[in-house]
């Protein structure tokens, strides 16, 4: 086996290989491969927070149910607090005390036909753009069961077409941004119901008509709904559901909604504040970057690992819509002036963070696409040739990059991601508006957990090769710290 390190190329003899393998018996290695293939995307349901055995299983199940019930309520009352209570958490507590649980229940909007129409028209338009716009065919990574899904790479075209259609709709008076703002609670409520219906559909489809062999039950109804049954369900051959929910509804909805909020500020106050301009410009740049790199997204954990269920599909449809957009939602009703120097500083720093995050993702994607031939930061890349076995017993090879951004820490790209989120939120400054900062806070927890989950996943997929990568790049996220 050849291991290329930043210090050069190491050729390991069979004896050395055997020695490196000692920490892993053959039986354990086979079990790890089977676990990787069979349980991909189903999370750990046997333990949580260090609990194991029966207590761990009960805690994992209780945590799952609490998440499924709690997240919709959190998303809805986040919207309510930002739009009706000036974003104040103490205001929310005061409201709960005054109105009682009955009043809290009554504040949950029932979707009107207009709200449903917004959701359905947007969903249908995005599905049509996904199917009809031209794009190169892109082969996704090999799945645990040895399949290689094919996608149409037309995300950038869909992004510009959607923004153009939205702006034209506003110009010709077909779309009213202020009406979208006013309907937002109902739209969130409709999306929630729609997503629950989608999860039920995905469960039935996964059970009776899966699109591929990358599907299966966890043995538990709750986990089959929460984690999903299929890795990449499709309607027909071409409508990839995860691309539709995560990219074309979730991420695209983010881009459209923040534009609507900025225009609503203009409609009501006669101008758009510099805080709104900075926040929306950074978020639009981030979403554009996402679509520019969409083929890379098809090689990330969301797609390769997490199945289509409540966690992913409900999350992308509702959580992105309600939580990720929150700075602009707040600013739509509360214009804040930053002043030129501060606004410019936030804008430039945010752009730099988004660029670094993009460059790290791009570096890994180009490295893999060119089979490690492309120079990284002007030098030959340091790499590890890692073999693994798919669930059907086929031996495959992947390259792991251990230089450039990927040599600083194993998940360095999460740091600029978090920095960018802070920089587009910080235009909403002030302690009494701390609820808006929930997104960067949540993102930090999400990405730290993801770094942990990805290490576990890659460890069971690549075994000793991953250990070698960890030896060469010892830091998980923060270089020289952790
Ligand atoms: P990553 O881009 O970190 O991809 C993880 C996969 O990459 C691993 O499972 C492994 O897959 C492969 N890999 C890991 N290390 C290496 C290496 N050294 N060289 C080559 N390949 C490697 O996935 P994420 O989905 O976590 O992140 C993708 C982007 O999405 C990031 O920019 C992140 O910040 C962003 N993100 C944003 C979120 C948000 O809510 N705003 C949430 C999550 C992510 P393989 O099996 O192919 O080897």
The percent of residues in helical segments reads 55-70%
Strand content: 5-15%
Instruction: Report the total helices.
Output: 19
- The average pLDDT is 88
SSE series:
EEHHHHHEEHHHEEHHHHHHHEEHHHH
Number of strands: 8
- The outline comes out as globular
Radius of gyration: 23 Å
Q: Note poorly predicted spans.
A: 1-24
The helix/strand class is mainly alpha
What does the main sheet amount to?
Answer: 2 strands, antiparallel
Q: For the record, give the distance between the C-alpha atoms at the N and C termini, rounded to a whole number.
A: 29 Å
- Hetero groups bound? NADPH dihydro-nicotinamide-adenine-dinucleotide phosphate
Order of the strands making up the biggest sheet: 1-2
Structure description:
- The chain is mainly α.
- Helix content is 63%, strand content 7%.
- It contains 19 helices and eight strands.
- The protein has helices at 14-21, 26-39, 53-84, 89-106, 113-132, 155-171, 177-208, 221-226, 241-269, 274-292, 294-297, 301-304, 310-324, 326-333, 340-369, 405-408, 414-425, 438-462, 464-472, and strands at 2-5, 8-11, 136-139, 150-153, 234-235, 239-240, 383-389, 395-401.
- The chain has a two-stranded antiparallel ribbon. A two-stranded antiparallel ribbon has the order 3-4. Strands 5-6 form a two-stranded antiparallel ribbon.
- The protein is globular, with a radius of gyration of 23 Å.
- Residues 1-24 have low confidence and may be disordered.
- The structure holds NADPH dihydro-nicotinamide-adenine-dinucleotide phosphate (NDP).
- The site of NADPH dihydro-nicotinamide-adenine-dinucleotide phosphate has 24 residues, from α12, α15, β8, α17 and α18.
């Amino acid at each position: 086996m050849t291991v290329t390190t930043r210090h050069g190329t190491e050729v390991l003899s069979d004896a050395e290989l055997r020695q490196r393998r000692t920490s892993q018996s053959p039986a354990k290695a086979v079990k790890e491969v089977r676990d990787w293939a069979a349980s991909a995307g189903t999370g750990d349901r046997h333990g949580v927070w260090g609990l194991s055995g029966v207590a761990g299983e009960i805690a994992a199940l209780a945590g799952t149910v609490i998440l499924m019930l709690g997240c919709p309520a959190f998303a809805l009352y986040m919207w309510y607090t930002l739009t009706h209570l000036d974003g104040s958490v103490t205001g929310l507590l005061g409201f709960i005390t005054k109105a009682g649980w009955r009043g809290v229940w009554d504040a949950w909007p029932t979707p009107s036909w207009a709200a449903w129409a917004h959701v359905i028209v947007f969903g249908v338009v995005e599905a049509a753009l996904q199917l009809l716009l031209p794009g190169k065919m892109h082969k996704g990574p090999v799945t645990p069961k040895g399949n290689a899904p094919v996608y149409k790479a037309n995300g950038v075209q869909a992004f510009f077409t959607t923004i153009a259609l939205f702006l034209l709709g506003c110009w010709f008076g077909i779309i009213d941004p202020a009406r979208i703002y006013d309907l937002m609670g109902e739209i969130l409520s409709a999306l929630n119901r729609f997503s629950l219906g989608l999860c039920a559909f995905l469960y039935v489809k996964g059970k009776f008509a899966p699109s591929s062999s990358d599907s299966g039950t966890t043995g538990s109804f709750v986990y089959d709904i929460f984690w999903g049954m299929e890795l990449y369900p499709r309607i027909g051959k071409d409508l990839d559901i995860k691309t539709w929910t995560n990219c074309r509804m979730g991420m695209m909805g983010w881009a459209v909604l923040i534009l609507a909020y900025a225009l609503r500020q203009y409609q009501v106050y006669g101008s758009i504040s510099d805080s709104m301009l900075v926040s929306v410009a950074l978020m639009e740049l981030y979403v554009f970057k996402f679509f520019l790199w969409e083929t890379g997204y098809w090689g990330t954990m969301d797609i390769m690992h997490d199945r289509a269920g409540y966690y992913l599909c409900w999350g992308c449809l509702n959580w992105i819509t309600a939580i990720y957009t929150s700075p602009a939602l707040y600013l739509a009703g509360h214009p804040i002036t930053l002043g030129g120097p501060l606004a410019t500083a936030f804008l430039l720093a945010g752009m730099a963070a988004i660029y670094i995050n993009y460059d790290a993702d791009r570096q890994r994607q180009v490295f893999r696409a060119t089979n490690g031939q492309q120079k990284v930061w002007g030098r030959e890349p340091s790499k590890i040739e890692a073999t693994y076995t798919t669930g059907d017993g086929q031996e495959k090879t992947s390259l792991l990059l251990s230089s450039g951004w990927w040599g600083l820490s194993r998940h360095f790209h999460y740091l600029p991601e978090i920095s960018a989120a802070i920089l587009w939120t910080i235009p909403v400054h002030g302690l009494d508006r701390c609820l808006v900062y929930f997104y960067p806070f949540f993102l930090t927890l999400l990405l730290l957990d993801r770094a942990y989950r990805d290490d576990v996943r890659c460890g069971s997929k690549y075994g000793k090769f991953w250990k070698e990568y960890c030896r060469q790049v010892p830091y998980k996220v923060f270089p020289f710290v952790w």
